[in-house]
Amino acid sequence: MKDKAAERGTRTGFTTGACSAAAARAAVLGLATGQVPDEIESLLPNGTRVRFTVHDGRVDADRKQAHAMVVKFAGDDPDCTDGAHLTVDLRLLPGQGGVVTWAAGDGVGTVTMPGLGLEVGGPAINPVPRRNITDNLREAAPQLLLEHGIEVTISVPDGQVMAKKTTNARLGILGGISILGTTGIVKPYSTAAWRASVVQGVQVAATTGHGMVALTTGGRTETFAMTALRNERPELPSACFVQMGDFLRYALDEAVAQGIEQVVLAVMVGKLTKIAQGETITHANRSEVDTDLVAEIGRRIGAAPEDCAAMAAAETARFGAELMVERGLGDAFHAALAQAAIDTLTAPDRYGRAFQLRVLVTDFNNQQVADVWSAPALPRERPDRPARTGIDHIVDQD
Question: Is the N or C terminus of the chain more exposed, i.e. has fewer CB atoms within 10 Å?
Fold first, then answer.
């Protein structure tokens, strides 16, 4: 539901996955009780609960199919899916206790290429939304799910039009948008207010006295970073961790201005590749992953020529990473890519040795796959904000 009291420019919204989960929860109550509610409190992936208004709720007479829709509110994030009608149709699978299956309705894409962590030929409903929807189904109607299975079909009217404003087609997702989100919350990453909050976060980190800040690209990488770093330094407060979202350059500039001696980047392979490229704006809609660089990293670690060619021809860095893992070269690949990112950011015309840079890389199962350090920071008399570096706008809502 909309936060009407929040100042415009700072309002958070909800992901397509969170809205789908709310619609699914309402619909399964229709199957269980015969009535789809007009409002539902839904569980988000981050563990919080939010109330959503439910539209067009209906259930058939024999309670074997139900339908519900939630309108997406994106807050102040400029999002092509703002106002989209996240529509869920549930069909009972009698006697298949606990089974949940997935289908793409009108406006939801179908996966046609590997490298996305989803089955080829299946619906573009990402793993976290699938888990969140399943959690809501089982929590709302536990007895029903013990006895029967559920087929979940998600539709988004006009999703094909929305998808034209995304990179879905280039990634092999055809026919509509993807159902996304790892926390359920959309923050206004592209607004000046969010950029200012990143700078402020780094400033607060500098006051903790720990001499470091961990910059993450979203909720998933932040959780990974907190686990990894607190295993080494249990005393690290949450203030040392900043979700930089789109704004790597602003975060690093402020780290230099505040005299922070160590910066940790916690990232996954896609954004790591874009950092290594030195892209100035690496939002998914505004720049592409350089898979030639991925292939070059493969060559450096001794990958077979045919594998390097496949990585260069792929649409995602994830494809190359997963291929290298299959070949037993995963650790070497991720370490070499992390080193390439360090080399880019610590070049003399960028940040040099203004801080020590540590790159922690996680895979899509939240397992650490690389930990690479730069040389220590050089001593300096006073913090001094660097010139513009050309590294800007790195986004990952994971």
Answer: N
Please name which of 39, 68, 43, 46 lies closest in space to residue 140, comparing C-alpha atoms: 43
* C-alpha span between 51 and 34 (Å, rounded): 21
Helix (H, G, I), strand (E, B) or coil at 201: helix
DSSP 8-class letter at 370 = E
* Distance between CA atoms of residues 243 and 185, nearest Å: 13
Rounded-to-integer distance, Cα 139 and Cα 146, Å? 11
Dist CA 392 CA 344 (whole Å) = 13
Cα–Cα distance list, 153 to 109, 130, 241 (Å): 12, 11, 37
- Could you tell me if 20 and 181 are in contact, meaning their C-beta atoms sit under 8 angstroms apart? no
| C-beta atoms surrounding 132 within 10 Å | 28
Token readout for 330 is 């995963």
Q: At what angle do helices 317-326 and 305-313 cross, to 10 degrees?
A: 150
d(C-alpha 382, C-alpha 258), whole Å: 9
**Is 385 in contact with 256 (CB distance < 8 Å)?**
yes
Query: What is the DSSP-derived secondary structure letter of residue 38?
Result: S
CA angle, residues 213, 366, 100, in degrees to nearest 5: 135
CA 116: distance to chain centroid? 12
Q: Which of 73, 88, 61, 234 is nearest to 150 (CA)?
A: 88
Taking only the tens place, the pLDDT of each residue in 250-298 is 999 999 999 999 999 999 999 999 999 986 444 555 567 899 999 999 9
User: For the segment 54-67, what is each residue's pLDDT rounded down to a tens digit?
Assistant: 999 999 999 999 99
CA angle 348–350–351, rounded 5-degree value: 85
120: left (phi over 0), alpha (psi -120 to 50) or beta: beta
Token pair recorded at residue 92: 């009972």
> Which amino acid does the sequence have at 152?
V
Phi and psi (nearest 5°) for 145?
A: -75, -25
